[in-house]
């Protein structure tokens, strides 16, 4: 380990179980010397294993529904009290589409479900940054990262309305990132991660076939959750201070591929 986050304080959203990208990021942040608060929606804390992660990383848990500004205000205030000062890094690792869960087609959604999914998966990022910004809760040269997927730029039919939510999320990173950079010297980026076998990932229709396709298309193969955690740690560290307003592909090269030999073989 490299002590990359020694002395840094953070908040990590979205660790549900050992498969979660946020779980691996918390483990790596702990190894790199950070102190942080773990948070998730109350129902996910009841259903998941967050207590185990908290024990392992000597962290406290503060429940917060990321769509509730009131919950976020409480979370950020209490986190600063627990950690003894302002925050250096925040991970937004949250996604959920009710239309996907209820097997609604992209062409025939429930708009109530669309709104809920957008609030959880995209607008929550704005709400979270809004509270951090107005509470002046981030240290200078702090770093905020959200996780996204390439369906924001290209068509992946089974990704459903999450494609639109991710496009909105990435836009928030740029727009809020401008104000956060100008006023507080804080950087804001999104990481566009390979398909990854987590609870959210495997909920997408056709995931098994798709992850295999993606593996065969990527010259370096799919990026794992642990590799995503490593990349996230680099963005929280002082080694990436001038990287901001970016959507950073962490996908083994998939996003720049047209076709690969391995995929062509299936058709020859
Ligand atoms: N798994 C993939 O294939 C993949 C690929 C690219 C990007 N991502 C993104 O990575 C992020 C993390 O997902 P994951 O794959 O680790 O799956 P995961 O299911 O482990 O994590 C999703 C988290 O979102 C949390 N969440 C849902 N509603 C919430 C709410 N109202 N308030 C607070 N938290 C809430 C869940 O409790 C859960 O912890 C998501 O943004 C996801 O879209 C995942």
Q: Can you put this structure into words, describing what you see?
A:
By secondary structure, the protein is of the alpha/beta class. The protein has a single domain, classed as NAD(P)-binding Rossmann-like Domain (Rossmann fold, 3-Layer(aba) Sandwich), CATH 3.40.50. Helices cover 46% and strands 15% of the residues. It has eleven helices and seven strands. The chain has helices at residues 21-31, 42-47, 50-56, 69-83, 98-101, 111-134, 162-184, 199-202, 207-217, 225-236, 261-265, and strands spanning 9-13, 35-39, 60-61, 87-92, 138-148, 187-193, 247-250. It has a seven-stranded parallel sheet with strand order 3-2-1-4-5-6-7, with helices on both faces. α6 packs parallel to α7 (162-184). It is globular, with a radius of gyration of 18 Å. Bound molecules: nicotinamide-adenine-dinucleotide (NAD). Nicotinamide-adenine-dinucleotide binds next to α1, β5 and α8.
**How widely separated are the two ends?**
46 Å
State the helical fraction.
40-55%
Number of strands: 7
CATH topology tier name: Rossmann fold
Elements, N to C (H/E): EHEHHEHEHHEHEHHHEH
Fraction in beta strands: 5-15%
Instruction: Estimate nothing, just give the exact number of structural domains.
Output: 1
The neighbouring-strand order within the major sheet is 3-2-1-4-5-6-7
Helix-strand makeup class: alpha/beta
Query: What best-fitting shape do the alpha-carbon axes yield?
Result: globular
CATH superfamily: NAD(P)-binding Rossmann-like Domain
Name of the CATH first level? Alpha Beta
The CATH architecture can be given as 3-Layer(aba) Sandwich
Low-confidence stretches: none
Characterize the biggest β-sheet.
Answer: 7 strands, parallel
